[in-house]
Automatic annotation (TrEMBL):
NCBIfam families: vsr. Keywords: DNA damage, DNA repair, Endonuclease, Hydrolase, Nuclease. CDD domains: Vsr (cd00221). InterPro entries: DNA_mismatch_endonuc_vsr, Restrct_endonuc-II-like. This is Putative DNA mismatch endonuclease. Residues 1-21 are annotated as: Disordered. Belongs to the Vsr family. GO terms for biological process: mismatch repair. The gene is vsr. The keyword Magnesium does not apply. Residues 1-12 have a biased composition (Polar residues). Pfam families: Vsr.
Length: 134
């Protein structure tokens, strides 16, 4: 059984994987602060996960997570059509996120997760503090 009806499937397929509005807002603020980064890059070879922003010299990986796809505690919603499939799919996304965090942390990286609803100025401050280090 397909995950959704054809119209919903088309709408979900049209979702951007990169260059989303929250990601661009964060990038603009970080750039304004003089910070430079790589976009949509795998931080570690051999780990098939891509971060939205990567600061390789400081070993900081930033992920801008969508509230729906990553099950935000404040804004998560679950479709009623084919509910079990979506519940499993979204739970698997969260498990993969935690696995990514653990793999990168084991390799000495700092992982920053930013929700799409977060204020880009506050999010940029978190990233900047992580880059400055302890």
């Amino acid at each position: 059984m397909p995950a959704t009806d054809p119209a919903t499937s088309a709408r979900m397929s049209a979702q951007r994987r990169r260059d989303t509005k929250p990601e661009i807002a964060l990038r603009r603020e970080l750039h304004r602060r003089g910070l430079r980064y790589f976009v949509d890059r795998a931080p570690v070879k051999g780990v098939r996960r891509r971060a939205d922003l990567v600061f390789p010299r400081r070993k900081v990986a930033v992920f801008v997570d969508g509230c729906f796809w990553h099950s935000c505690p404040q804004h998560a919603t679950f479709p009623k059509n084919n509910a079990q499939w979506w519940t499993d799919k979204l739970a698997a996304n969260v498990v993969r996120d935690r696995d990514t965090d653990a793999r990168l942390t084991e390799q000495g990286w700092t992982v920053i997760r930013i929700w799409e609803h977060e204020d880009p100025l506050v999010a940029a401050e978190r990233v900047q503090k992580a880059l400055l280090g302890p």
